[in-house]
Give the backbone structure.
Amino acid sequence: MTVLPAELENELVSHINQLEGMLFGLTRNDIGCLAYQIAEINGLSHRFNKTEGILGKDRFRDFKKRHNLSLQQPEAKLLFTRVR
């Protein structure tokens, strides 16, 4: 069972894919937080953890399966380099 209507869920997946394409690694918590924010902004009733504001592990696993997502663990990012 999904919390978000198909249209909003597809927009979320598109956004996730865009971020992944720009090499922004997303964690389960990042995606869960985005889904929570979408549900809150759109006034949808949901069973997200309101204290943490994220999607549960089981729902996240189902979300990944539904959209065939394979997320990579983000690596530490170098903020700047000094050129000599």
Notes: Residues 6-21 form the longest helix (16 residues). Helices lie at 6-21, 28-41, 57-66. The chain has three helices and no strands. The chain has a mean pLDDT of 81.
